[in-house]
């Protein structure tokens, strides 16, 4: 049609990897950084950074994105994940306050804090994965309790590593997007390492939500049920609903999560375009 176009970038001599997926090409909301305005936000891409070896976006795609100076890309470290996509640990939600948005980060540390809090309240035997007979990536879902998770030293070490990777990205995002700690919300998450030493979600990863204005389509985490309610859902609601957001938890274990995906992998959102002609904007 007259208002539609596309660009095709393909590698000629290298194989594509999962980092070439569009879950690994995100964009921030509009930001102001050190006096410089980015009215269309900044592109976020995942890489093997800070190491020289590992998976990266294919050359032609990476070169094309870095030529987009209006949305000058921020390179993050995502190769620690099995799929290696940035949307597995960061997303953004709109707010009606002065900041206009919050950045959400997956946080194993927040999950461990929540589980320890519930354990101290005498809810250590609260069970995860209720109603799910099969595990994910080898996870035994039979009688997985808060106590068992907290007693699993290997899982704790793996999540300490995952948290360090996320914290590395947190520092980069704060600097490159001009964010303060108050602009960031940590959502409880757990990971486990596969045979290649790459991280996969231990339970459905709530950060990989679909954002529809103030309605959030969030993967249902199937966390420990205490007091008749999933404590992960309760904590996420308490973090996001005060911002005027509506949390809708969607079951995606059979459809996406079991194949290393979540709700976002099978949904698309048609966005309303900007009123102004963005291609006339000079960086």
Q: What Rg, in angstroms, do the CA atoms define? A: 19 Å
Helix content: 10-25%
CATH superfamily: L-arginine/glycine Amidinotransferase, Chain A
CATH architecture descriptor? 5-stranded Propeller
Summarize the structure.
Helix content is about 20%, strand content about 20%. The radius of gyration is 19 Å and the shape is globular. GO terms for molecular function: calcium ion binding; histone arginine deiminase activity.
Can you describe this structure?
The protein is of the alpha/beta class and 283 residues long. It has one domain (18-267): L-arginine/glycine Amidinotransferase, Chain A. Helix content is 22%, strand content 20%. The chain has five helices and 15 strands. The protein has helices at residues 59-66, 108-120, 146-151, 153-177, 231-240; strands at residues 25-27, 31-33, 36-38, 43-47, 74-77, 90-94, 101-107, 184-188, 191-193, 199-201, 210-212, 215-219, 225-226, 229-230, 246-250. The strands form six sheets. A three-stranded mixed β-sheet has the order 1-4-5. The longest helix is centred in the middle third of the chain and has 25 residues, at 153-177. The model is unreliable at 134-138 (pLDDT under 50).
